[in-house]
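F.,

This is the one I mentioned.
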């Protein structure tokens, strides 16, 4: 297996295999011959027991990628740094901002990265912290997008997200980024929550990588609150992107997954903690 063909395992998700802990959050372990990457950490309670069970030991990871600064992706940074003080962290600086979700019938909910985790990031040495502001290769054949241009008229961040508790200023979640992995049959795209929108994300990756072929898409696609028009547009775009498989999980939403299954011929498998994908089998 070449170094360009990683294996992946979802280690934290809203759903979990028997014996693993489920929580609203996401974390994916990516492993090549030369490099191990932890993509997000979940919200804090599941990463430790799950990685102990799956033997994806954060102490052995080389890189920690934070897709964006929501609590459900950044809650176990303390555990990762405690196990692995030398790990290199990759994120966009806006991960440290204050943010809220505000539904009209409820009090504002703080959904930022927890303060104790923010402090740990702020105290990292420059040599261990890599701010990503543009498409960047972080390991052989593995890249991060940095901020993704918001172009499609029907795509939004996917919820009532604000930077203030009064709900005056919408949070554009500019820190949201995706990862892509080169494989012989095209790119494998990994999304955290996909707050930039799936169409915007895939189009930007195609442009940045100069590769049109998409072999697969895995991660949270945040389509729970998507309008019918957006769901149709996303499905049409997926038909055009023509991935061999999609592994939607975390915040994608069951209705969107069902809609994809009914309207696409692509293989669609809902992800869960414990799910494993070996890109070495894709040759
Ligand atoms: Zn999320
Ligand atoms: Zn999010």
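My design for it:
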């Amino acid at each position: 297996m070449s170094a360009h063909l990683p294996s992946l395992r979802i280690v934290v998700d809203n759903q979990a295999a028997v014996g693993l802990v489920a929580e609203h959050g996401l974390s994916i372990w990516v492993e090549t011959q030369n490099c191990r990457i932890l993509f997000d950490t979940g919200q804090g309670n599941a990463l430790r027991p799950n990685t102990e069970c799956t033997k994806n030991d954060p102490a052995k990871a080389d890189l920690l990628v934070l897709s964006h600064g929501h609590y459900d992706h950044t809650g176990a940074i303390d555990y990762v740094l405690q196990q692995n003080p030398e790990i290199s962290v990759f994120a966009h600086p806006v991960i440290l901002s204050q943010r809220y979700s505000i539904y009209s019938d409820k009090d504002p909910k703080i959904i930022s990265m927890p303060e104790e985790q923010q402090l740990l990031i702020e105290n990292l040495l420059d040599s261990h912290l890599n701010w990503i502001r543009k498409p960047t290769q972080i390991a052989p054949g593995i890249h991060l997008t940095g901020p993704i241009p918001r172009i499609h008229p029907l795509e939004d961040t996917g919820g009532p997200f604000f930077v203030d508790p009064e709900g005056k200023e919408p949070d554009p979640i500019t820190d949201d980024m995706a990862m892509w992995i080169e494989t012989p049959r095209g790119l494998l795209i990994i999304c955290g929550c996909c707050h930039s929108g799936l169409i915007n994300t895939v189009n930007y990756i195609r442009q940045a990588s100069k590769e049109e072929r998409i072999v697969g898409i895995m991660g949270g696609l945040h389509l729970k609150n998507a309008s019918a028009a957006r769901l149709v547009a996303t499905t049409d775009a997926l038909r055009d992107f023509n991935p061999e498989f999609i592994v939607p999980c975390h915040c994608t939403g069951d209705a969107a997954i069902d809609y994809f299954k009914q309207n696409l011929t692509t293989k669609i498998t809902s992800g869960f903690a414990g799910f494993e994908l070996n890109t070495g089998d894709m040759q």
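The helical segments are 47-54, 71-74, 77-83, 115-122, 198-209, 228-241, 254-263.

Talk soon.
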